[in-house]
């Protein structure tokens, strides 16, 4: 069968034990860049033979993979970093192999988009998002495509973009122009690497943030545009007023449930937080 294997996006520890085992067990590894993948194969102790599967050779790679599968060998498909077929070659190979009736199996792992989404703290109803990948390099085309994504996402979906360091300033300026200064964005750079950084800010402040430190423009980027409908985050602690009200009601000897009920009516703070605080004070 064909295994589609995710590889790390920076931190080698993110290669799963299953991915390492499969890279050792298969006879062939189809790789976007064989030199880069050779380092990974050495790291896991794999002696698999490699074949080129970059974006210019997907058809030839699919033919070769089909031949290996027909001969009874398993094959792993990898890209340079992250999950194959996500802004990377692989999609057309998988389609061709599927069409020939072979089994295609996912070996999931690192993906920059999923990593950024996991730390974005999206709270909008449904949690939906659109993966928009890379933006066009030409200014007018970029603005047109962005306007298109904005319309498709509407008010309910987040948008995820990939961006390279030499275009990050142009991308942030274009995003601010299309979505407006108020719309919030997560800028996630160098995920899983030593200088990993992620900030959430309004698009109107994004270019200034970028220019505030030359390091901010370095590395690889995922940009998550929050939907306007993103809700306020959960409170994790009570403000001073709610704290005081809970104290007074607990001191007055009211049962915990009633403390939470009355304190919520008086302060509007979340009932579960009030309840927990009353329990803690009584303990
Ligand atoms: N297939 C990969 C995946 O699963 O995420 C994406 C490959 S795409 C050619 C490369 C782009 O992914 C980079 O330009 C950047 O936008 C994003 N990317 C990859 N690694 C990243 C990282 N460590 N931190 C932030 N973004 C990253």
Query: Which structural category fits the helices and strands?
Result: alpha/beta
CATH superfamily of the largest domain: Tetrapyrrole methylase, C-terminal domain
CATH-scheme architecture of the largest domain: 2-Layer Sandwich
What's the CATH topology name of the largest domain? Methyltransferase, Cobalt-precorrin-4 Transmethylase, Domain 2
Distance between the termini: 59 Å
Biggest β-sheet, characterized? 5 strands, parallel
SSE string, helices as H and strands as E: EHEHEHEHEHEHEHEEHEHHH
Q: Quick one: overall form?
A: globular
Strand fraction equals: 15-25%
Question: Oligomeric form of this entry?
Answer: single chain
**Residues in helix, %:** 40-55%
Bound molecules: S-adenosylmethionine
- Rg from alpha-carbon coordinates: 25 Å
Q: What is the average per-residue confidence, as pLDDT, rounded to a whole number?
A: 96
Count of alpha and pi helical runs = 11
| Strand line-up across the major sheet | 3-2-4-1-5
Beta strand count:
10
Number of domains: 3
- Runs in which pLDDT lies below 50 for 5 or more consecutive residues are none
- The top-level CATH class of the largest domain is Alpha Beta
């Amino acid at each position: 069968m064909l295994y589609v294997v995710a590889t790390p996006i920076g931190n080698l520890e993110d290669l799963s034990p299953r991915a390492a085992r499969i890279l050792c067990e298969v006879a062939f590894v189809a790789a976007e860049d064989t030199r880069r993948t050779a380092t990974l194969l050495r790291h896991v102790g794999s002696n698999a033979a490699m074949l080129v599967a970059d974006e210019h050779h997907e058809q030839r790679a699919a033919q070769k993979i089909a031949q290996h599968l027909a001969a009874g060998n398993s094959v792993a498909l990898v890209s340079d970093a992250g999950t194959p077929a996500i802004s990377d070659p692989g999609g057309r190979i998988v389609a061709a192999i599927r069409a020939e009736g072979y089994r295609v199996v996912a070996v999931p792992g690192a993906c920059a988009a999923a990593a950024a989404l996991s730390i974005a703290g999206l709270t909008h109803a449904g949690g939906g998002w659109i993966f928009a990948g890379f933006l066009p390099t030409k200014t007018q085309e970029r603005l047109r495509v962005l306007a298109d994504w904005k319309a498709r996402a509407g008010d309910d979906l987040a948008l995820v973009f990939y961006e390279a360091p030499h275009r990050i300033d142009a991308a942030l300026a274009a995003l601010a122009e299309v979505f407006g200064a108020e719309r919030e964005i997560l800028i996630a750079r160098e995920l899983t690497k030593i200088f990993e950084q992620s900030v959430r800010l309004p698009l109107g402040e994004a270019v200034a943030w970028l220019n505030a430190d030359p390091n901010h423009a370095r590395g690889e980027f995922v940009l998550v545009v929050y939907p306007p409908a993103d809700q306020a985050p959960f409170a994790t602690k009570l403000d001073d007023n709610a704290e005081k009200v809970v104290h007074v009601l607990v001191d007055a000897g009211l049962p915990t449930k009633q403390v939470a009920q009355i304190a919520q009516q008086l302060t509007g703070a979340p009932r579960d937080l009030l309840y927990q605080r009353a329990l803690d004070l009584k303990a």
